[in-house]
Design goal:
single chain; mainly alpha; Four Helix Bundle (Hemerythrin (Met), subunit A)
């Protein structure tokens, strides 16, 4: 990131989600709860694919994390995923994925995990 810290959650994105899908009772909350429920699995898939040097799998896992985070307004988590995606796409042109991906894991997994937990806690307040 370029020094600015994005918010954990963009409440306007949640409002847009609510407006777009809420033709019946609280469907947006189901979507957010599914995001919360699936987030640990998504983060684990990122970890597993990075630590095993699986570039196609890592790209898939990071894109899944990024797009689902963007949908619920998890701005900071989406930005971490975007930065990691950029590294996967660019840096692998200059370094062997089997060496680079574990390094990217060491550099990124702790902050993704921490941010994911904080985001989950905050989202739970919205759907309680």
């Amino acid at each position: 990131m370029d020094g600015k810290t994005l918010p954990l959650l963009d409440s306007a994105a949640l409002e847009r989600l609510r407006d777009e899908v809420d033709d019946t009772e609280d469907i947006w909350k189901v979507f957010v709860r599914n995001f919360i429920r699936m987030l640990p699995d998504r983060a684990e898939k990122v970890r597993l694919t990075l630590t095993t040097g699986d570039l196609p799998g890592a790209l898939d896992a990071v894109l899944s994390l990024k797009s689902s985070s963007q949908m619920v307004g998890a701005e900071r988590l989406a930005e971490f995923a975007t930065d990691l995606e950029r590294s996967l796409r660019v840096d692998t042109h200059y370094a062997e994925p089997a060496r680079l991906l574990p390094q990217l894991a060491a550099e990124n997994l702790a902050k993704i995990t921490r941010c994911g937990r904080q985001t989950q806690d905050l989202l739970l307040k919205y759907v309680a």
